[in-house]
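User: Hey, quick favor. My workstation is busy. Could you predict this chain's structure for me?
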Amino acid sequence: MKKTLVSALTTALVVGAASTTFAAANPFADVPADHWAYDAVAQLVQDGIVNGYSADGTYRGDQNMSRYEMAQIVAKAMAKSDAADNNNKALIEKLSAEFSDELANLGVRVANLEAKTDNVKWTGLIRYDWNTTNYEAKGEHRKPETNTLKLRFTPSVTINENWTGYSEIDYDVNADETGADKNGAEVSKIYAEGKYGKADVKLGRFGSLSDASHGLFFDDKVTGAEIAYAPTANWSVKVTGGRIDAKKDAFKSDGKNTSATYYGTEVLYKNGKWEAGVGYHAFGANQTKVGNGDNYQVADAGIGYAFTENVKATFDYARGTEVADFAKKPNLSKDAYNVQVSYKGAKADQKGSWGAYVAYRQLSPIAAFQATYDHKEGAAGWNTLKGWEIGADYAWAKNIVSTFKYFTGTDRDVNTNDKVTGVWSRVDFLF
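Assistant: No problem, here it is.
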C-alpha cells in the first residue's frame, strides 16, 4: 500500500514537472481525430478519474490533442488507477501501452502498471426490505407483508484490455406471514462485458432495462446477448436477444415455470438537457402462454428534460398488442405510462445527500410487463396498478442509504374503484 501511494505521488509530481518542461515545445505528432483514445479519455473524465490537461483542469474533447497532451492525461489516470473500477483500469492499461514512448519521455514508468492493478474486485451490500400493500378487493390489512434480508456479492474480474467478467450472488432470508424463514442462494447474474471503441457487448445472464421508457416496460434479467453502439455523442442504439424467466406469477402459464424468447431494439438520443428514446420488443410465439398461447409485441417511448442540475422530468409511454385473456377485462388497457418529476438523489459516498420524486402512472400487464417500479402488482398478481407514488432516499452515512416509497391508487384488474395503498422501505449497507 505504501509503495503504491509513493508511486502515485511520484507520478503526479513527474507529470507536474513535465508540464512545465515541455509546455514551451510540443515534439509529438497530433493524435488523429478518429483515434480510439479520445473515447477512452472521455470515459475516464466522465467517471472522474482525471480532470483534464489544460491549465484550468478541463478536458477539451472537441479539440485534437497531441500525443504529448494525451500522455499527460494517461499519466494522471495512472496516478489514480487504485481508485478506478476494473473497466477504467483496463482503459488505463490500454492507453499506457499506446502512449508508452511518450510516457517514458515524461519519466513515467508503465511496465509495472499491471502488477499494481488488482485483477479481481469484490463489492456488495447487506439489504433489509420491509413493504406492505393493502388491497381493498381482498379486504385484508397489511397482507401481503414482506420482511427480507439480502446478502449480495458482486465480484468482477479483469480478463484483458477489452473484457471484464461480472457476477451477482444473492443470499436471501425471507420471513413470510407465518414467521417461518425461507432461505435461498442464487447466482442471479453471470456475464462477460467487452468494450471495443464505441461498442459495448454483454454475453451471459445480465440485467437489461428498457432505456427508451426508463424501465416502464422491462427491467429484468436476460440470458443471451446485448450490444450497445454509440456512433456519435448524441445517438446510440441497443439490441438485446435471449431468454427470460417466465414464472407463473408473471406469465400466468399452466402453473409451471418456463422461459420465453425475448428480442428488443432501442434507439436513444441525448443532447444537453434533453433525452429521448424509442423501442420495440417481442416475445417468441406460443412461449409466454399469455392469452392461451398468444405472442405479443410492445412499442415504448420516453422523453426527459433536466430543468436544472437537480430537477428532471420524464414522460414514458408503452403500448402492447391485443391479448385474448385481457380483452375480457374492460378495465385493463393495452397502454401504460409514467409521468415523474425527480429532485437530486442520494449518493452512497456522500453523507447527507438525498433525493425525492413524485410520479403518476398507469400500468398494464402487457405494456408494463416487467416494469421497474416496486409498486406495480394488483391483487391478482398482474401489473395493473394506477395512481400516485412519492418517494425519497437519504444517505445517513457513507455507504448507508435508506429509501421510502408510498403509493395510493386503484387496481384496474378487478374494479376501477378497488383502492390500493402501499408502503415500501429499504436500507442498504454497501461495501
